[in-house]
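Subject: Sanity check before I submit

Could someone independently write out the structure tokens for this chain? I want to compare against mine line by line before I put it in a report. The sequence has 299 residues.
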Amino acid sequence: MNELITMLGQSGSLVGYLLIDMAVAILLLGGIRYTMGFISKVDTTDELAEKDNFAYGISLAGGVAAMGIALSGAITGELAGSYLVELIGMLTYGVAGLVMIKAGRYIHDKFALPDFRKHEQILQRNISVGIVDAASVIATAIVVRAALIWVEGIDLNTFIALFCAWIVSQLMLVIITRVFEWQYARNSAVSFQATLEAGQMALAIRYSGYLISTAMSVTAASYFIHYNAQNLLVGIMQWAVMSLILMVCLTLLTMLAKVLVLWGINRREEVEDQQNIGIALIELTTSFSIALLLMALMT
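---
Independent answer below. Compare away.
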């Protein structure tokens, strides 16, 4: 304890920077609920406490988690030179993260799952859609965090790099959704999106695992690429190519791991026909575990 007090005394400026970072982070986390409600024109108090809308609560929880994940990329622990610069930097990165998360939700709605209106389904208490919505914003935030750690400084090149990394992440999430739909369509006469709209929770959980693990593979790809503001286009192209390669590796490794973990169990029948949430959760955690191992190997 005495050593901690001594260290803090010698690093008073560092404590000031950390206090600024945490104050901004908590302010943005606290505001995410009201921001989502304002943008969506929804009374959040009514949905959460009066109507007890679990689907909306899950969706909002995903937004809060996503904001926290993105902000963790903005807090680097490095001294910015002055408290004002640190405050501006943290606010700028935080707002940029919030915009990209919201834009990622829009892209997911319009291009990944365009067959139904996700927001309306959530207001109608569709928990499956709420789970998928939460997973999609968390997936976006994972990549936003990686991009915030990857870039340096606060200038035009910084935001171009952030935007390009965000584009790569959204492209990967749309691709994995199309692959997931194709796999599902081979064994079902009803489309994946129609099944999700009907409230198939086990399928939503399995799909959420695909989204989050794919975002983690995109993050792993950033470890290979050095940020160079003068050669930004090449860096982004390299990131996109590595993301695609790692996504394929993740898919193959996850398939193998699921076969071994759930040996002797017909996963398709359990999840798609019997709506077995337990099996779906095992699949989600298996996808997450393989993605986590892949990230560890790449560092």
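---
OP: Matches mine. For the report I'm noting this point. The first helix runs from residue 2 to 10.
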